[in-house]
Amino acid sequence: MSSTEIYVLEEVELNNPVFIEALPGIGHVGKLAADHIIDELEATKFAEIYSNSFPPQVFVKDNGIIESMSNELYYLKDVGENHLDLIILVGNTQALSPEGQYEVCKDTFDFVKNFGIQRVFTLGGLPVGQPLEEPKVLGAANCEENIEILKEIGVEIRENDGGIVGVSGLFLGIAKLNDIPGTCLMGETLGYFIDASAAEAMLEKLSVLLEFEVNTEKLEERAEETREMLAKAQQMEQQIINRASGADGEDLRYIG
Amino acid sequence: MSSTEIYVLEEVELNNPVFIEALPGIGHVGKLAADHIIDELEATKFAEIYSNSFPPQVFVKDNGIIESMSNELYYLKDVGENHLDLIILVGNTQALSPEGQYEVCKDTFDFVKNFGIQRVFTLGGLPVGQPLEEPKVLGAANCEENIEILKEIGVEIRENDGGIVGVSGLFLGIAKLNDIPGTCLMGETLGYFIDASAAEAMLEKLSVLLEFEVNTEKLEERAEETREMLAKAQQMEQQIINRASGADGEDLRYIG
Amino acid sequence: MSSTEIYVLEEVELNNPVFIEALPGIGHVGKLAADHIIDELEATKFAEIYSNSFPPQVFVKDNGIIESMSNELYYLKDVGENHLDLIILVGNTQALSPEGQYEVCKDTFDFVKNFGIQRVFTLGGLPVGQPLEEPKVLGAANCEENIEILKEIGVEIRENDGGIVGVSGLFLGIAKLNDIPGTCLMGETLGYFIDASAAEAMLEKLSVLLEFEVNTEKLEERAEETREMLAKAQQMEQQIINRASGADGEDLRYIG
Amino acid sequence: MSSTEIYVLEEVELNNPVFIEALPGIGHVGKLAADHIIDELEATKFAEIYSNSFPPQVFVKDNGIIESMSNELYYLKDVGENHLDLIILVGNTQALSPEGQYEVCKDTFDFVKNFGIQRVFTLGGLPVGQPLEEPKVLGAANCEENIEILKEIGVEIRENDGGIVGVSGLFLGIAKLNDIPGTCLMGETLGYFIDASAAEAMLEKLSVLLEFEVNTEKLEERAEETREMLAKAQQMEQQIINRASGADGEDLRYIG
């Protein structure tokens, strides 16, 4: 009995769109890259996704107006040389529990599958131990064909050194069960730092794969905004985790 | 499949009521203020709310009679200069899990929405580091209009410094999705102390917003009662958390 | 969507039975007392209760045969001077999660309510700091009338010093919602020790309340058996808790 | 409302098959033994099992292709002197939560029961404190008859020294409720080491019980492969546990 609620803001028809997932994750490499595409190419939000598995909180924005925890779907039409349609999944959170992760992924996938998606890209970060002059982008996929494509454009293949935790992994698995080719791009990052250069490297590879152009001039400015939002978010989330695990003397009931 | 059970004690008709949430939270500022309104203005309890997400326990009161964990809805008719009807949500607990928090909020909101609520107020506390001579009341809202109203009556707007965790946040988000204007009032408090002066400051602002009068003479006396109840509650809750997180050698199965 | 499964072993008709809950808890005072009644008065098991919220494990008994985690319902007919019928709830576990605690309680209550139960007793332990020469039995109830009955027979009323965590509390609350009088007897105990003298004190009070006789000669022998069973159980449960809370490097997936 | 999804890859008819469970567990003794049978006797995969209770992640294999968390069912026909049909349950994970453990077990059991299974074997490990020259295989069962069979072939009976945590225990309990005889074989192992000699001892006993032969020459080679896979898995799982329990400053939302 899923608790995922999808609010459709605009009925839209898309032509075999590419689905790109970029929810908050390690170093927010994917989120930063996707938010930049949405801004630069002026994507349109057409759906909001809510779940009981999201953190039970709201953010307070600069003007005192609250922002609920949610995922959002944007679309773009006729992008780049191949005139591609895109669906981009972004948001301010992922589900807290394992069950919630699966549930929100499946419900979101079922929703976007109806638009006839033909390819899936998930954008994540890969934590590295030291600062990098030139962060690489690594790749994994749910089919041989996509691995070959990644190799052709010079994306290093991630091999047998762990896995992909969270939605960036789950969407590849769900896509595979639906016979839809999927690729995960992972930008090397220090992880605890919103990393404009990692996002830039990722945008570059994504531009080649999807054959579109995106101006990265304002990327550092956006990184700064994201840093501020996240400092706030992480502080709240740590509070919830501490409470849930009894690390301090308070718990959820004493908030509010 | 929600486990929320709402027992209606009295069928009541209300005229576009204002909904006020004041469940236990930081410093119990909201709870103390709302309990005081209920007592002074002689509000009538008309519904009890139970959930499997509440802590699995009962309190033992002074006379040896047990009290279940529950939320309660009270109504008031024809209050103040504007002859407002009010629905007030109070109780001795909030849900333990994130999923439970969302579930109880949604089910409660669906219930009160049927009474035609036009505005939502959520009352919470905001922890501050040191004792305050004159605790302020800060505000946030789910729409621009309410922010303006708060500014007009001298409530400081809380800006971009975290968020609102728990039901006081969630009700604002749910109200927004239902196009109902909502405001959160947060009373500055030390947090670990039941703070009559914070509740008094909050009652003052609420009186202005809703244009009604409430005598605050007995507030300190009520604060004392609340302190005793909470000392008991927090002790039990800490036990549950410790057990759930394995911090001691016992667990839920060995209680009872 | 409850996962509680109740297997009926014998269709039985009972005459307004008294329901007694005695699941594992603090010092296993209630469990020891109830197991003794079942044994001495030769009660008949008529139902087994299973739940997905019980610990995911089985015990291995002396002969190498496994025992599932379960609760069990026994009945007795025509007991004592008042010819009472009894339903006794015992078992080797309580649910692990808060939600599970509520769910199993409600489903069990709905099942026994159909037999026309008129009174509810829950048997628990109350931890005390030091060894006691003569452990007392304290009481709480869900109605004034039961408090008076307890006072009449010399049971000290527990007042405002905490609460009752787990099923012994929840059954009182559920009974109250169903207008069925309920009493909790709590035997003082060191808690970490299976305490035959605490169970004997409890049996004595219960005998007076229900007007029946039970020979307590074999109680110490039974206490010894229970100690062995519990040493085993607590060891396993601690393992599960440690794993669930990440206290060691293993988790549930690496068991089996 | 179960989230277990069973994908049938091949419709197959089996003749009163024996069901063997060998999911990842202590020392991976069972998993190693079962994977070896599948490989040597060329078993056919006929179903894949997915659950929202599995860890929310995918593995990345050597070639950069992802592998979802799943359980798998293989069949073998006409094995050994008794021409037995077998169903073997293997996989790369067990469910994370207690509720998930029960749910996946029950759903899997319901599925294989339809093939007319007559016997159940669950294969696990039993951690011992020091390295063993000749690891023993211990046994437990859900009926007297199976205990006698184990004794006849020289399997030591495990008596009253704890229990069986996870699916290897749960399947025995579920089989018992379905009147199907079940046996658990537990190979002594250091636990943190993939132990080819423990798996070999288990295969030997299983060969006698089911009267079939299996070449164990390549067992050490397979052990090595399993070690590599598990090093990867355990690292990821520890990350999830740490996050879920707040042991580090990150949580699930910041992965991906």
Describe this structure in words.
Four copies of one chain form a homotetramer. Chain A is an alpha/beta fold. In chain A, 35% of the residues lie in helices and 26% in strands. Chain A has six helices and twelve strands. Chain A has helices at 29-40, 98-113, 144-152, 167-177, 196-210, 219-244, and strands at 5-8, 18-21, 44-50, 57-60, 66-68, 71-79, 84-91, 119-127, 137-141, 156-157, 163-165, 182-189. In chain A, the strands form two sheets. In chain A, strands 1-3-6-7-2-8-12-9-10 form a nine-stranded mixed beta sheet, with helices on both faces. In chain A, strands 4-5 form a two-stranded antiparallel ribbon. In chain A, strand 9 (137-141), helix 3 (144-152) and strand 10 form a beta-alpha-beta unit. The longest helix of chain A is centred in the C-terminal third of the chain and has 26 residues, at 219-244. The radius of gyration of chain A is 18 Å and the shape is globular. Chain A starts with a strand and ends in a 12-residue tail after the last helix. The relative contact order of chain A is 0.19. Residues 244-256 of chain A have low confidence and may be disordered. At the A-B interface, strand 4 and helix 6 of A face helix 2, strand 8, strand 9, helix 3 and strand 11 of B.
Task: Offer a concise description of the structure.
4 copies of one chain form a homotetramer. The first copy, chain A, has 6 helices and 12 strands. Chain A has 256 residues and is α/β, with parallel strands linked by helices.
